[in-house]
Amino acid sequence: DDAEDPFVRAVGGATYLPTPTTTLSGELYLQTFGGSDPSEYLEVALSERFSRSEVWSLGRTYAALAVGQQITPILQSNVGLVMNLEDPSMLVAPSLAWSAGNNTSVSVGAYVGIGERPDLTSLKSEFGLYPSAVFTQMSAYF
Fold first, then answer.
1. Which helix (H) or strand (E) holds 59?
2. Considering only CA atoms, which of 34, 113, 18, 32 is closest in space to residue 69?
3. DSSP-assigned letter for residue 125
4. What span, in angstroms and rounded, lies between the C-alpha atoms of 42 and 47?
5. Cβ proximity of 44 and 58 under 8 Å
6. Distance (Å, rounded) from C-alpha 48 to C-alpha 32?
7. Deepest in the core among 17, 85, 114, 123, taking most CB within 10 A?
């Protein structure tokens, strides 16, 4: 849309393998279209860019960390963190994946938003808005 101002989105990350069964990953993410304060999040959430999924987050600067650990050759545990560096709040995502066969996997996990919860008059943090959720997923490839 010619009426919308351009914005910058940038991400950088690294992965480190301290052992053959452990993976550590980290990323930094920046988008100039977003709120620098929780009081601006509602405006971002109601924007055309957010409704088109052009941006997925309400803030501007984020860090993400992930740790994966192979427990056995068919069982993998993971924990991911996505942190809004400006409010501060975070999303914690632990999971456990089981390779049930050559073409089938089963995962269980959760998403837990940590941060100051909103009240009736204002937003306090981005991930404080998120409810906790659990999931089970089965994938089959054929």
1. none
2. 18
3. -
4. 9
5. yes
6. 15
7. 123
CB-based contact 28:63 (threshold 8 Å) = yes
Identify the H or E element spanning 119.
none
pLDDT of residue 3: 75
The whole model's pTM is what? 0.86
Q: What is the pLDDT of residues 86-115, one digit of tens each?
A: 998 999 999 999 999 989 999 999 999 999
Q: Rounded to an integer, what distance in angstroms lies between the CA atom of residue 19 and that of residue 40?
A: 43
Q: Please name which of 101, 130, 103 lies closest in space to residue 114, comparing C-alpha atoms.
A: 130
Which 3 state secondary structure label does DSSP give 50? helix
3-state secondary structure of 51: helix
Task: Say which DSSP state 5 is in.
Answer: P
Token pair belonging to 30: 């920046």
Report the distance separating Cα 101 and Cα 80, nearest Å: 25
Q: Give SS3 for 87.
A: coil
Torsion of CA 12, 15, 16, 21, to 10 degrees: 160
Q: Which helix (H) or strand (E) holds 10?
A: strand 9-19
Q: Locate 55 and state its tokens.
A: 């941006």
**pLDDT digit string, tens, across residues 16-40:** 999 999 999 999 999 999 998 999 9
